[in-house]
Write a structure and sequence with these properties.
Elements lengths: L4 E4 L4 E5 H4 L3 E2 L2 H13 L4 E5 L5 E2 L1 H13 L3 E5 L3 H15 L17
Parallel strand pairs: 2-4, 3-5, 4-6
Antiparallel strand pairs: 1-2
Helix pairs in contact: 2-3, 3-4
């Protein structure tokens, strides 16, 4: 067993405690790469990520996590998210649904750059 992991063999659910696996501060996008390398090595198709003890999640971590989760063939769900973690995940999920678009209007005259 890897650190921070438990297996429920009856239901083939792999449980990962993020605080033990990564730490209390989920700050960097690279941490998601490490997490999904571990998830993809597991035999179980259902992965439970336990956020107990996690105090912070950056927007970049949340964005990368949700992108990788949406592409994963495994059923990944979270438990024990504190309100700030849930809020960050919700904000990033909403940004996927309503991305801000920048409109650029062409001009008929050349732009001078000094």
């Amino acid at each position: 067993m890897g650190k921070g992991r438990d297996v429920d063999m009856k239901n083939k659910i792999e449980k990962i405690r993020l605080e033990k696996h990564i730490g209390a501060l989920l700050a960097f996008r690279d941490y998601v790469d490490d997490l999904f390398e571990e998830i993809n090595r597991l035999d179980a198709n259902v992965i439970e990520l336990d956020f107990e003890g996690v105090e912070f999640m950056s927007r970049s971590f949340a964005h990368e996590y949700l992108m990788r989760k949406s592409k994963s063939e495994k059923d990944i769900y979270e438990k024990n998210k504190c309100p700030s973690i849930q809020n960050m995940l919700s904000v990033v999920e909403r940004s996927f649904k309503n991305p801000r678009k920048i409109r650029v209007t062409p001009t008929s005259h050349p732009i001078k750059i000094a």
